[in-house]
Amino acid sequence: MAAMVLAATRLLRGSGSWGRSRPRFGDPAYRRFSSGGAYPNIPLSSPLPGVPKPVFATVDGQEKFETKVTTLDNGLRVASQNKFGQFCTVGILINSGSRYEAKYLSGIAHFLEKLAFSSTERFDSKDEILLTLEKHGGICDCQTSRDTTMYAVSADSKGLDTVVGLLADVVLHPRLTDEEIEMARMAVQFELEDLNMRPDPEPLLTEMVHEAAYRENTVGLHRFCPAENVRKMDRDVLHAYLRNYYTPDRMVLAGVGVEHAQLVECARKYLLGTCPAWGTGAAVHVDRSVAQYTGGIVKLERDMSNVSLGPTPFPELTHIMIGLESCSFLEGDFIPFAVLNMMMGGGGSFSAGGPGKGMFTRLYLNVLNRHHWMYNATSYHHSYEDTGLLCIHASADPRQVRLGCFPPGPGATGSAGTLVLPLSCRCEKWWKSSRGVCFNGWDCGRGEYICGAGWWRLRHGAASSGLCSVPTPAASQPGQHSPQAGP
Q: Which residues form the Peptidase M16 N-terminal domain (predicted)?
């Protein structure tokens, strides 16, 4: 039996004799190696003869998805991009935020974010709004920033009329009952407590670096409601702010995945000629101040030894964020700064999204991989209508704090060539288009590119900018010195 199995195996392998079998891979004399073949002396910078020339993607200036913009009689702008798919994203973007609160109680925008999608004239409760959206597979969200407030819904395209009507009711006809305002107070109070106790200090550092860079003006005002103003918020205060900033000429109705004519028809139906809950009248207290970069330093000392949820305490770290003035998103250097921020990248010892994300960015290669005591090194870019801020956030042991741990400018600006930034996500497309229309009246396009000349403008512009630094020692030791930076 064993002999029969051996014979069958040799036959399957191609052996024609019962003696010594032939080499399985043939005669070694006929073997060829890739290192000594037909192209021995051609450098890597030259194309191989006989090989077809590759065809690369180019930016020809033609948009596959054209952004259409229509202005209604009341000044409201309607922007849309049609995109194949069953679902759409529609929202109302308003030119309002914490930068416009100089003459009001600080924290109004924060409160309005918590009060969004509550009861209105047509809907008795937030649950009724969610049930209405559920019929079209929709979700809703409201977000506020320093210069923008966004109410958005993603739902089936067949429910566009319902979605636009709901958004108009939420933005223009909120009830703002005493019960809802009290619930918003509790939500804001909880968020403030969580902000001061969470181990990740990034939101607090972002707030502080803006405060240091723009002292008590525009984007340097508090984005989060101060604790002393929580009990002062009421319906009259909110209506006074809404009357001046929630006006049609400061709004954009934007949609992705919808027909433009259909969106304009819905806008005329629900947003034209309607009287808001706070009454009609011309805005008289609109803040048109231009951001003034000052530079400076803000420090905060906190004890993080008792915030751990387990037996292992959090490491005692010092967090520093350094900010340089950049440019607004209306300037030509906005794309170079965005590419620089992407190339700087960075992250922490563990970043959300899986290990290895961003591991070939400049901060990973030149900081995290070379200094084992660095816990975090991340780049951020904040851009607004009239200014911008490029920041680098670093976390390390208090004994290892040093300003010289960041790579110099040429490490990021020495890369010439062309980099293409496509936008593929529907929600990201909606945000980009609507924000561009809100502040500039036009959409800047789907593909943007930057060449080597942009790096030099960016490098010299950032190098001449003032410096603002925000060290935040979590549990500083006696005698610890924090690096100082002036305006």
A: 77-226
Q: What percent of the chain has pLDDT over 70?
A: 69
Residue 482 has pLDDT above 50, yes or no: no
CB-based contacts of 269, cutoff 8 Å, min separation 6: 161, 164, 165
Nearest to 188 by CA among 100, 104, 114, 99: 114
What distance in Å separates the CA atoms of residue 366 and residue 54, rounded to the nearest whole number?
33
Mean pLDDT value across residues 147-158: 96
One-letter-per-residue 3-state SS of 415-430: CCCCEEECCCCHHHHH
* Count of CB atoms situated within 10 Å of the CB of 107: 25
Q: Return the H-helix or E-strand segment holding 132.
A: helix 126-134
pLDDT over 80 at 339, yes or no? yes
Exposed, middle or buried, 97 (CB in 10 Å: 0-12/13-18/19+)? buried
Report the C-alpha gap between 144 and 98 in whole angstroms.
Answer: 8
- Rounded to whole angstroms, the Cα distance separating 203 from 200 reads 8
- pTM of the shown model: 0.73
Tell me the CA distances in angstroms from 357 to 346, 360, 431, one per residue in order.
9, 8, 24
What H or E segment, with its residue span, contains residue 461? helix 452-463
Cα-flanking dihedrals φ and ψ of residue 377, to 5°? -155, 110
Alpha carbon distance 119, 456 (integer Å): 53
| Among the listed residues 219, 239, 243, 236, the one whose alpha carbon sits nearest the alpha carbon of residue 98 | 219
| Three-point CA angle 124, 126, 127, nearest 5° | 95
Q: How do residues 177-201 score in pLDDT, each as one tens digit? A: 999 999 999 999 999 999 888 878 8
Note the residue count of the chain.
Answer: 487
Beta pairing partners, 348: 376
